[in-house]
Amino acid sequence: MKFAHLADCHLGSWSRKPELQELNVASFEYAIDSCLSERVSFVIVAGDFFDISFPTNTSVLARVFSKLRELKEASIPLYLIPGSHDFSASGSSMLRVCGAAGLCVNLMNLLESSNDGNNGKTTLKLFKDSARNLVLTGVLGLRIGMEVDVLKNIDKAEVERAVNNEKGLKIFLVHTAVTELLPSALANEHIEQISLSDLPAGFHYYAAGHIHDPIIFDGTGRGAGSGEQGAGGGEFGARGAAAYSGCIFPNNFTELASIQHGSFILADFDPASEKLSLKKQDIKLRDVISLEFDAEGKSAKEVESEILACLDGKKLGAKILLLKVSGTLSSGKPSDINFELVQKIAQKEECFSFLRNTHGLATKEFEVAVSKASSVEEIELDVVNGAFKNLDDKEKEARSDLVFSLMHLLNKEKAEDETRESFSARIVDETIKILNLEEKI
Questions:
Q1: CB contact set of 341 (below 8 Å; sequence gap of 6+)
Q2: What is the pTM of this model?
Q3: Are 200 and 173 in contact (CB under 8 A)?
């Protein structure tokens, strides 16, 4: 029985770079076409299907819904959990629309609240697909890693008893940082994470999302397939294989430079032996050329000359060009570097997309502290964490959810056929719902 594991599609992202937004959607379409041609039995998405909870780009949504309909018409169900981007404190999200249209099954609806009769522990229901002899459950991703508390509060013994009484393929979906699966670059980073040992045992596969690097582990803790081996290692015990599928398409400059393209996982399960084989499938629709220059102790003109000399003879046609310049100039200002000329060269060579990163470039006369954050999301997390650092966990979670819900709301764009008045009224109505002000107005 074949199935596909996708995660971190972030559909609708790259709104300021239309050509990369198009490439993101095309990568998703490629993945679904592969699922159809491979005749998989089902597809799972381990969070962050959309980049925001309620995207409004109608052209993107039309293409996404069209592909989901193809899956449905081929009798291939899509099972998913929301990620930190999909989650909405108000409960209003595009995933809800997809579910209502019968295009997916949202496993978040299987999560039960803790109760006094269960010693305050969170219990999980199991979803059973009898036609495919399949059992699934999972836990959604939340902002600033708050899902870790939910995962650690699961009544593991109860879930293990339930899953051990079931037959067939058993899958646990999770959207968080898992210690044993972290890529080496993130092994020493201070991020909220959970160990595989904290998750209920008894599942054949732990399908993970949130980390965009593809990482595959088999049931013995050894790296499997073509994904990078995780940082943790060690025996999984009664826990089966686990993997990050990788993102469908890189979501920022740093990811484009490091992983360069998207991926997903094709899995094959043998019911007789209960063995699971995993294979990473690359989604490489465009080549990436990543150039990095150290400006430390050099003049602006020297750096410019280095960049132009490096570009001479480069074949940029139909490729993504990344240019990163960092360091402190000995003389001149960053604006003295003729980046417009670089842009013109890229256009002349019919480069597919050109991105530059000069956040780490400073001048000796005026040097500023540079944030270590590599994306807008990380900057947002830094700001919110700093603002609420003195609050207890419960209050921190509540206020953080509120802030991010309002941020996502204020990031919405006016639909093409929507008047300014109706758009403003919609924003006000959703703000009232988020702030729970209905009864006070």
A1: 308
A2: 0.79
A3: no
